[in-house]
Structures are given as C-alpha cells and as structure tokens.
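BACKBONE GEOMETRY TOKENS
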Amino acid sequence: MNSYYDLLGVPPHATEMEIRSAYGRDVLRLQESASDKVTQFRAALDAAFATLVDPTKRSAYDEALAAAAQSDSADAADDAGAAFRYARRGGLWFAGGAIVTALTYAFSEGTYFLAWGPLVFGGFQLVRGLLRYLTVPHGARQATHLAVLGGLIAVGILSAGFADRTGPWSTSHSADMEKASALYATVAEAVAAGTAPSRLEWYRLGMTKNFRDAAAIAHEYALLSATSPAAAFEALDNRWKARLDEATALSDRFEAQEGAAP
C-alpha cells in the first residue's frame, strides 16, 4: 500500500466519519479469518486509523506524505534524465554510423563503407535506453526527450535506407560476408578461451555458440551469388534473426541475474 489512505480504501480528503466507517468495515471482514498475516494487517489497520482520526497526527502525516511524493517525483525525473542521456548517446552513434554509410555510398559510385560498429552498438544502446525511459512514470517523461530520440531513429533509418543497394548480389557482397565470418569466428574463439565466474559460465558458453553461429551464417552468405534462389537468402535471413533473438535472450537473462546489462 502507498499510504494509510490506500490501506483503508478512502481518498486523502475523506472525512472522519468516512474513515471510521471504512475501518469498521475492514475490522468486521478480518474477524472472519485468523492467521499471522491477518494479525499483521490488523496492526497496520489500527495504526492507520489512529493516525487519520487524530487531526494533529493526520496533519503531520499528510505533510510527510506530500514530502515523500515530491521526493519520488524528483527521483523519477532523475531516472528519466539518466535513461534519456543513455538512449541519446546510442542514438547519436546509430545515426552517425548510418550517415557515414550513406555519405560513402553517395560519393563513391555505388560502393560504401558499412559502419557496423556504430550502427550495432548505437542501435543496441538506443533501444535499451528507450525501453528504460518508457518504464519511468509518465509524468516524468518529456515530449522533447521523445522528439529527440524519435528524430535520431528517423535519421538513422532514413540514412541507412538510402545506402541500401537494391541491385543483385555481387562478389563484393560475398567478400564482405567472408570478412565478417572471419571476424565473428575470431571473437567466438576469444570468448571460448576466456574465463568467467561460475555463476556466469552459462553466459560465456551461450555467447561462444552465438558468435560461432554468426560466423557460420556469414560464411554461407559468402557462398551465395547473383544466381542463388531467393529462398536461400530468406533462409539465411531467418537464421540470422533467430541468432539475434537468442543473443537478446542471453542478454535479458544476464541483466535479470546481475541487475545490469552485460
């Protein structure tokens, strides 16, 4: 319960008669059963009643309640600000990576540098921060914050979309995927060779498998050509999405266990 008023089920402006009536109703209900929890609830009910029917105690309680509400509001505003700054940093990385990709594509006659690092890192941080921001109380959110984050998302998506080539799969695509496969394999082996506290061994093993899966899928992309059937691309796309879902599940489990994102 948030307050004595909530405990008794009456509004903060309730009259003394309404408080007494609510207290009597609850006491009669409690007499129908007996347990340790009922005894504890009855003690809390008695404390609430004794405070709210005494004008002096009620006045002091209301002042303390107002101060606590003000403090909670300030804490919520701080949480919202921290979540916004976290998401904004990710959004800047994400939008910056997309813009670099788009500019290199625009000025290099159809080839481009895909800024994977900023795009992936920034996009992940942006989504995490935005989800965290949306969990703070509605009153602590600011329209300007949401507008800024929405703008960064729009810039990133539009820029990345501009650099999306719609032509056929080429040998350069395959070469890029082979390089990506090698990078993922290197990371997988580094994680496999590492150590982790026993309580996090499941995470190390899970990420090792995930990076090895990424290396395998990227290698299979590298084997495709312009004549490969659309079904082959779609199958690899689905496997890649499943791998990303597994990585997200591992991250969520880590955060639930450790209280922080990995």
About this structure: The chain has three domains: 4-53, 74-166, 168-262. Residues 168-262 form one domain. The chain is about 75% helix and 0% strand. The chain has a mean pLDDT of 80.
